[in-house]
Structures are given as structure tokens and as C-alpha cells.
């Protein structure tokens, strides 16, 4: 069945918005209807995203399913959407984690449920829009749309310190995105000055073939870099992340780790490298050093965390360091590994936050020192938690291994020293994850957990429904990474062709 003529991209972006509008008219006391309407909307969006797969041609160059309409013709601004293999895998990741997060919030979210579901669906609109926008102005709009609902999700339904965490998150993100807006406008004005026309001034496909002035490239890259580095988050722009994760509700943490951090990595690949290739080479050595610091620093700090959520949050800093490292060595294996790492990190870390949420719902505490002995009263939970712990530390055969391995291969080609530094995290990752698991799951049941009595139950059927798809995907992408690598091989080659191939020069 040929679906390429249908506006599937518009459908997958705005279906959550339609759901949010419907929920707005549901009476506040009809909570069950609100929950099921939100879940149904997310599942329909997920189904539409899967419809993109049969008509997608992995061997084709350029973008597919392109949709274009004039929006502000006087300035060449268009409503332009398009899809390549990189966008496709991230869109499906987003729609998958969105319905899982909404289902996971059925129990924990008890106040202002209607507002929560509306915020979550609007957040999904922004995230999918970022991955599909091919007009820089439209991209910026979607980028900003993401900020408001996440601010509300943490600020209203978060923990005791939620206001501090939310303000920190917003200030960091806003500063970066405003500088990015200045860079977008500077690029558009430069294009208009050179061509004498606004036509295509914000069109990504037009701008990526345009040779910007070296000074403009360097400064614009810096502005884009700051926006994306904060979102990843790269060291030293990461300090908002642990606070945001600790205070966010479980569903917020899942989508924050699973998708929002990927917006930064995607931005580097989609915009920074093709638009400003010369500047990318100038900035790359600094970014590689910061990535190596993040990989080691995140793992060391995770090792000493007393809070389960903070430990998983700092592990994200370490894992996302592999993403930026893989991108900026400008090497095919490295970049494919970075994208694979983004997808697998979204699945595995999202699942770890769900696991933390499961135990938090029973104990209302995340302190590792108070846990211990969970294997006896909650054997299914202990097995699932152990599975994702092993996936996160990179056990071969599970999703966390292949992406990091490809980044190691690419980094070794660039610099054996850099690869050796990055490989230290294999030991550190095993240390902090297995030590955490030992303290939480094995041994005698702690006095704190004994005091919970009959409240300490194993995973419910609803919780199993949220975790089972992530188990299946972790196994699938660990055993058959080609499911993703085949989709991204062509766009990775196109990006690297524009940026000029592997990085050369002095290695750190």
C-alpha cells in the first residue's frame, strides 16, 4: 500500500494536539475517561509513526514524505517537514516512549490529571516536530514548544524541590535557545544578502549547500552548540539534569531521559554539521575533550550517589558523552554508533526510571541505603531491574553494547588515546551499576522495607505492560542492530560527505 502521498508527518505531529483539545472538554471528574483518551491518542500517534516504515526507502538519498506549504512568504518561512532514517528512528522512539509514559502515570498522577495529560500530549507535539522540521524557523518553534509543558510537568507534579529544579531547567534551556535564534536569523540574513531574495532563507535544504562566511560559521556554530550542549547535556552544562530528574514525576523522567536529551544529539547531526562544516572541524577538538570528561565524570559521580534517580541521571551524562564523541570524530562507525546509542539509551534509561518509579510508588523513598533484599518479596521486579542494569552497563547481546562499541571503533581510528580514556567507563559503569543493584536487591530485607508490610508488592500487570515492550526492544536491538543501522547508513554518509570526512589533527 502506497502511503507516501498522505500527510503522515503532519498527522503524527498534530494527532497529540487533537487529543489534548478533546481532553480539554472532558469534565474534570471523569478521570478514567481522561486517562484512556490520553493513552488512546498516544497509541494512535504511535500507529501513525509505524505507518512511515513500510513506505520508507533506506537506500534513497535526501528526505522522504516531504510536506511543504508557504507560511510567511515575505521572509521565505515555510511549513516544511521531511524524514530521513535518523528522523524516523527518533520519531518512533518518541511515540513509543510517549504511550508508555502516559500508561505509567495512570497510578502516580492523582491531582490535576487533566492538565497533566494535556501537557504531556503537547510535549509530544513539540518533540516529534523537532525531528521532522526542515525549516529553521519552524524547527525553532517546535524546539520552544517542548520547554513549556516540561516546565509544567516538573513544576506542578514534581517533588519537594520542584520549583528550584524547574527554574534551573528553564533558564539553562532558554539562554541556549535564544542564542540559537540569533544564529538562525544571522544565517537567514546572510543568505538573503548573498542571493537578494528571502526565498529559501530558512529552508534547511537550501542553507546546507550555502557557503557561509567562516566568521559567521564559527559564531553561529557556537550558538547552536550551546543550545544543543545544554539539552544533551554535555559537561559542564549538565547541572540542571540531576535536579530535574530527581524532582520530575516518573513519566517526566522517562520522557526527559528517553527523548528530550536526544533533541541535542539530533540537532548536532542535523543542523550543526551540514550548515557549518568548517566551524564543526574547528570546534570538534574541544567537544571531543568535553565528551571524554563527561563520560568519565558522569560515571564517577554516579558511583557516589545516595539517591537511585540521581544515579541513573548521572549515568545519562556519561552515556550521552558517547553520543557527542561519536558525532564529532566525523567517522561513519562513530556517528552510526552515536545514533544507535541515542535510541538504546532512550529505551534502557527510560526503563530504569520506570523501575525506580515502581519501587518509589511502594516506598515513597529512593535512598539506596534504605533498600536491600528486594529479591525475595519482589522477584519479578528484581529480574527486570537486573536486566536493564546489565543492558545499561553494556552487556553484549543487549541494546547498550553495540552503540558504545561502534563509538569505540570510530574513536580508535581517530585517536587510540581518546579510545583508551573512553574505555575506562566500561569498568566504572559495571562498578556503579552492579554495586547499586547489589545494595538494592540482594541481602537481608532492610528494616525500612520490612516496615512496609503488605505494601511491598511485586510488579502489577499495568507496570509489566509498560516494561515488556522495552525489554523486547532492548533484546531486538542488541541481537539485530541492523534494524536501525540499515535505516541510518545513508543519511550518516550524506552528513559526513558535507562535513568533509574523518577528523584529522592532534588527538587529545
Overview of this protein structure:
Helix content is 72%, strand content 3%. It has 508 residues and is mainly α. The protein has a domain at 287-508. A two-stranded antiparallel ribbon has the order 1-2. A hairpin with a 4-residue loop joins β1 and β2 (77-83). The radius of gyration is 22 Å and the shape is globular. The N and C termini lie far apart (51 Å). 55% of the residues are buried.
Secondary structure elements and pairings:
Layout lengths: L7 H17 L6 H21 L12 E9 L4 E7 L1 H20 L8 H20 L3 H22 L4 H34 L8 H4 L6 H18 L8 H8 L2 H26 L1 H27 L4 H21 L3 H32 L15 H14 L6 H16 L1 H26 L5 H4 L10 H19 L2 H18 L9
Antiparallel strand pairs: 1-2
Helix pairs in contact: 1-2, 1-4, 2-3, 2-4, 3-4, 3-10, 3-13, 3-18, 3-19, 4-5, 5-6, 6-8, 6-9, 8-10, 8-11, 9-12, 10-12, 10-13, 10-19, 11-12, 11-16, 12-13, 12-15, 12-16, 13-14, 13-15, 13-18, 13-19, 14-16, 15-16, 15-18
What would the keywords be for this entry?
single chain; 508 residues; mainly alpha; two-stranded antiparallel ribbon; 19 helices; 2 strands; 72% helix
Rg to the nearest angstrom?
22 Å
What is the 3D form? globular
Strand line-up in the sheet with most strands? 1-2
Count of strand segments: 2
Short account of what is shown:
This protein has helices at residues 8-24, 31-51, 85-104, 113-132, 136-157, 162-195, 204-207, 214-231, 240-247, 250-275, 277-303, 308-328, 332-363, 379-392, 399-414, 416-441, 447-450, 461-479, 482-499; strands at 64-72, 77-83.
Amino acid at each position: 500500500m502506497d502511503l507516501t502521498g498522505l500527510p503522515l508527518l503532519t498527522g503524527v505531529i498534530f494527532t497529540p494536539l487533537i487529543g489534548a483539545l478533546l481532553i480539554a472538554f472532558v469534565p474534570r471528574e471523569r478521570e478514567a475517561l481522561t486517562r484512556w483518551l490520553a493513552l488512546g491518542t498516544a497509541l494512535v500517534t504511535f500507529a501513525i509513526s509505524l505507518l512511515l516504515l513500510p513506505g520508507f526507502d533506506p537506500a534513497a538519498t535526501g528526505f522522504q514524505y516531504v510536506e511543504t506549504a508557504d507560511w510567511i512568504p515575505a521572509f521565505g518561512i515555510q511549513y516544511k517537514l521531511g524524514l530521513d532514517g535518523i528522523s524516523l528512528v527518533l520519531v518512533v522512539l518518541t511515540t513509543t516512549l510517549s504511550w508508555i509514559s502516559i500508561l505509567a502515570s495512570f497510578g502516580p498522577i492523582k491531582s490535576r490529571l487533566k492538565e497533566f495529560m494535556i501537557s504531556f500530549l503537547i510535549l509530544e507535539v513539540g518533540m516529534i516536530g523537532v525531528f521532522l522540521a526542515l525549516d529553521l524557523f519552524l524547527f525553532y518553534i517546535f524546539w520552544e514548544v517542548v520547554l513549556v509543558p516540561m516546565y509544567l510537568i516538573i513544576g506542578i507534579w514534581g517533588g519537594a524541590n520542584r520549583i528550584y529544579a524547574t527554574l534551573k531547567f528553564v533558564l539553562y534551556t532558554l539562554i541556549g535557545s535564544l542564542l540559537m535564534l540569533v544564529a538562525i536569523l544571522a544565517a537567514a540574513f546572510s543568505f538573503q544578502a548573498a542571493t537578494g531574495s528571502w526565498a529559501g532563507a530558512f529552508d534547511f535544504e537550501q542553507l546546507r549547500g550555502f557557503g557561509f562566511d567562516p566568521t559567521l560559521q564559527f559564531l553561529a556554530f557556537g550558538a547552536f552548540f550551546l543550545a544543543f550542549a545544554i539539552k544533551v547535556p554535555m559537561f559542564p552544562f549538565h547541572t540542571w539534569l540531576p535536579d530535574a530528574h530527581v524532582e520530575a514525576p516518573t513519566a517526566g523522567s522517562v520522557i526527559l531521559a528517553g527523548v528530550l536529551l536526544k533533541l541535542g544529539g539530533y540537532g548536532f547531526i542535523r543542523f550543526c554539521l551540514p550548515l557549518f562544516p568548517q566551524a564543526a572541524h574547528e570546534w570538534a577538538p574541544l567537544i571531543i575533550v568535553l565528551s571524554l570528561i563527561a563520560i568519565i565524570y558522569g560515571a564517577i559521580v554516579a558511583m557516589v550517589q545516595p539517591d537511585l534517580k540521581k544515579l541513573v541521571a548521572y549515568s545519562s551524562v556519561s552515556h550521552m558523552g558517547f553520543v557527542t564523541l561519536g558525532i564529532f570524530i566525523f567517522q561513519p562507525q562513530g556517528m552510526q554508533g552515536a545514533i544507535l546509542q541515542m535510541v538504546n539509551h532512550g529505551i534502557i534509561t527510560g526503563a530504569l526510571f520506570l523501575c525506580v518509579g515502581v519501587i518509589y510508588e511502594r516506598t515513597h523513598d529512593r535512598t539506596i541505603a534504605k533498600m536491600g533484599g528486594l529479591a525475595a518479596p519482589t522477584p519479578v521486579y528484581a529480574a527486570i531491574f537486573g536486566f536493564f542494569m546489565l543492558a545499561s552497563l553494556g552487556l553484549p547481546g543487549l541494546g547498550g553494547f553495540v552503540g558504545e562499541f561502534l563509538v569505540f571503533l570510530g574513536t580508535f581510528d581517530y585517536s587510540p588515546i581518546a579510545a583508551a580514556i573512553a574505555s575506562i567507563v566500561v569498568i566504572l559503569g559495571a562498578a556503579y551499576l552492579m554495586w547499586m543493584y547489589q545494595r538494592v536487591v540482594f541481602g537481608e530485607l532492610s528494616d525500612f522495607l520490612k516496615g512496609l508490610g503488605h505494601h511491598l508488592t511485586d510488579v502489577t500487570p499495568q507496570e509489566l505492560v509498560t516494561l515488556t515492550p522495552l525489554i523486547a526492544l532492548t533484546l531486538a536491538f542488541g541481537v539485530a542492530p541492523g534494524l536501525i543501522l540499515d535505516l541510518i547508513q545513508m543519511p550518516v554518509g550524506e552528513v559526513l560527505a558535507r562535513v568533509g570526512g574523518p577528523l584529522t589533527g592532534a588527538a587529545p
